[in-house]
Amino acid sequence: MRQFFFIWFFLLSGLSFSQTITGTVKEKGSGLPLPFANVFINNTTQGVATDAEGKFRLSGNFSNEIELVASFVGYVTEVKTVSFRGKNEVQIEFQLAFNESNLSEVELKAKRDKSWERELRRFEEAFLALPDDPYKADIEILNPWVLDFGKVKANKGPNYLQATTQEPLKIKNKALGYDITYYLQDFRVMRNGTRFFGQVFYEPIKTVNPQESEQWINARENDYHSSLRHLNQSILLNSRDSIHFSIYQVLPEKMDRRRTNDFYEELNKSIVSVTKDSILRRPMGDGTYRVFLPGRMEIHHLDKPWRNDYYTNVYHAISWIEAPERYYDIDLRGTLINPTQLVLSGYLSRQRVARTLPLDFEPNKNFIVENLQTEVITSPALKLNRLREKAWLTTNKPYFYPGETAWIGGQMLYQDQTLADSLSRVLYVDLINSKAEIIQSATFPIEQGKISGGMSLSAELAPEDYALRGYTHWNQNFGQKDQFITPIIIMNPGFQPKVESTDSEPLFGGVSMIPEFSISDSLSYRVMDLKLDFLDEFQNPIDTEFILSLVDGEAVVEVDSLSSLEKAMDWLDEPLEDDFNSELSSSIEYGISIRGKFIPSNKRQPLINPITVVRGDLEDYGQVMTDSSGNFWATGLYFQDTSMIAIAAMDEKRRPFGSVEIFPRKAPLVSRTIPSYAYTTELIKEEDRLLDVSGDYILLEEFVKEEVKVRETMAERNYGYGPPSREMGQERLEKMATWEQVFQSMGLFSNYNFGEKTGPPMVILDGQKFPFIHPSEILEGLVPSELESVKVYSDPISLAIFGMLGYGGVIMIETKKGFRTGPDSDRKFNSEGFQIFDIAGFTEYQEFPKNPPSDQYLKKKPTIYWEPNGQTKDGIYQAKVKVPYGVKLIRIKVEGRTQDGEVVYHSSTLDLEKPILR
Question: Which residues form a coiled coil (predicted)?
């Protein structure tokens, strides 16, 4: 109680009586007054315009220290800190400098293209409101054309997107009833978050509609009661708990053992309740107060209904606040003095301009929060939109002849990049004729969002206009606009396309690619030392992932692409219609998939059973459950061409029973409208006819520095399975008494497979796999302290190498007496009672040939080089290209994206007789 009265005394002493600010606004240099200039207190509704002599006067109850802002069109805005300590009247003089950096209207419009529009959408989501915030529909930037975007290379750290303005942003917030003038000083979108600040003036919107006015009053009160400012005032004034907030301290040492999403299970274990009067706060003597936090605090917004995944039995919003310096400073209104003193996450981190109230907003102390609805839009279309993906594909050249090989490369686009690892890993590619018939099909893996494959075109193909379609099984939930389709020409032998040249629209963005090369001769071919430098708009190296093709500039006619990566990214700006809904009946594929149905042999056998799937002689295996109708879906297999797959339901004694039926995969319907190029044909000379045939081409050979390596054992190389997600060595294992302690320390397995239920993890003991056996049976006879190592594979990237058998995760154990040399096992699969099916896997194709024999003459071919997975190191890509004699010109095309997501495109012709060296 003594502490409460102590705080309350200082609160009363910090209150100010009416104060006055007077002054003038003049032009810097000339000293001429600026009439009708705007003068306001930052982040408030308090402001005036200067009179004809440039004078102003502001009166009110101000904080001891405020920011006063003066602005005038065409002049640089000026901000001054005003202190009222010991006085009630302050005089200020502003001298505004003329802004000479204003862009002309012509210059502004020149940069307003699709890329600018895309950056504007990113800006609005980070600045105005999140996509799932209902306020997003009620807030609008009235003058977006004053915004300009650019990439900035920091002295330390990655590039970031910056937004700048030459005029203040005019914003109408119809959710809270304010016209906002925002003088943006800095705005940055970085990989780990967004930050922005500026000076803001709020002007309440005038309305004659009493219902609208009442709606704004309630919205402002509701917004205030769930704000950081209200939380701070609750702590400062020690208001009663359980009215609006409950506060808990997170115990970091207990979070490692957290197993459940049950709030009541975690209470007093990983979190403990904290009363507001136990939080230390001290007056600083200057009208501010310091709040000391004992650690990371979990805030429950009791009157804010919310759907959250953090706790399964909590239905209100949750936030977390943490002070890196263990304290933060606020004023008597609860306003955070220095935003860098607090790290916010959860609900409080959602605050944007749409939900920000002016600092002079005074809440109604008698207001009661009631009948609130969840603030998150629950529209199915909005939630489903985040789950969308689409392929973008390109080929080594724009047209082909029957019998040639078309090499294919591409990237996946995601509406929500954070979900990329949980979405599809299988892409289907169809060759479609002008009658909308599928002529050829291929299946390729998606590896870390990239596609690489090849299609050997039938020698019987009729020359005409075709289309190349790419889609995933998951795409079928969202309709045809999520399928990729692009025209492709199959030419009549002896002819080539003749295309009218068109002026392609220049791409927005500052990334450039500069080629350098030199040529040397050998007995059988010429060798091009190629170097590609990728530079940002500041001429700094920038890392890029790209698809690179080099073709004979005299043998291949250039055709403007109708499906560039830049155009494909327009799909990111096409959300689902508001009334869109889907049952998501087409599942995500994590590998080759099998859909089927279990048929019991008698009525006593249940329809819900585990189905065992085995490829070959235990090369891969797994178990999935049937549903109540007996249907099952198995995915995650990884093999090429066709493989024998054994499938059966197994009883408790591991004996097959009943039978299974496999459903064939159905391709989605083909659109009747097939895109095509506008072109004519022209005859080519017989001696100029060149074909791309697998096995006859040259692939770039990248520079690889030879390293002397000590021979590793199979165990040291993890039996060929790559690095684990987590690992515990002998030193730590010796301190573990039980397996529960081991897995509590290493972390539990997570289900990364969207919408799928996984079985238990598989155990690999000294390189030997144990199929169909629960891990507990194997671990029961092993003592952790007597082991060499335990390695866990649980993330989607690591698990991909295991195929279906790693669907639920993998535990790799190496004993101190481990002696096996590899994953081979004496155990052989007994397929008795299983049904055997021939299942098609990923399409086999001959990759673009790499190194031609040095003692054989290299013949001319249309495609000199094809690299679908190009990647720079420190902004540089280097390779040796082996070029046939007789090639004079090489057309080079690069298309891809930087690590920051900016599109890179470059197309030019290299004259081999004129090397480019720098």
Answer: none
